[in-house]
Write a structure and sequence with these properties.
Layout lengths: L7 H18 L1 H21 L12 H33 L2 H4 L1 H8 L5 H31 L5 H19 L1
Helix pairs in contact: 1-6, 2-3, 2-6, 3-6, 3-7, 6-7
Length: about 170
């Protein structure tokens, strides 16, 4: 038989659509995936207690206040990065193993590995972005930090995508 030409883009679109439908239909997992960043964001915000605006007098107390604020921001960002990495791993860790039989069957009919993993990355990446936005919004406004939101979101999203790759 002549070799069958693979349509990588068509496979990717089909697989991504099918996988997104599966994720949305699994209401328990979807609710858990949306609820976890809300809980993590609230816990992270509650764990931070930055001092409320003390007047700048040039005393040693002002230096201590500044040190407390900076250490609080560093701790906040560290906790959010660890949580974002965990979101990525947690979302992806069961996916390939759970679909092993389906993957092997479709692989026999010329399934592209790039289309398969790419579809997982796109859907799980969208979920990770939503999770990072929710957690960052709650933690950022709840702890009243002055860190740049866009930079923090990019950092969290990239960390979550790395966690997704490790999970896959």
């Amino acid at each position: 038989l002549p070799p069958v030409k693979r349509d990588h883009i068509g496979q990717f679109i089909t697989l991504a659509g099918r996988y997104a439908k599966l994720k949305l239909r699994d209401t328990t997992q979807t609710a858990l995936a949306i609820g976890l960043p809300l809980i993590f964001g609230a816990l992270i915000a509650l764990s931070q207690h930055p001092p409320k605006g003390a007047p700048a007098t040039g005393r040693v107390d002002d230096l201590k206040m500044w040190t407390n604020i900076v250490s609080g921001i560093g701790t906040l960002q560290f906790l959010m990065v660890v949580a974002a990495f965990w979101f990525g791993c947690n979302n992806a860790i069961r996916e390939v193993v759970g679909e092993r039989v389906i993957y092997r069957r479709e692989r026999m009919v010329n399934l592209s590995i790039f289309a398969y993993l790419g579809s997982k990355y796109v859907v799980l990446g969208a979920l990770a972005l939503i999770q990072c936005i929710l957690m960052l919004a709650i933690a950022h406004f709840g702890a009243d930090t002055k860190a740049p939101l866009l930079g923090a979101l990019v950092t969290l999203f990239v960390t979550s995508i790395i966690g997704t790759g490790l999970g896959l």
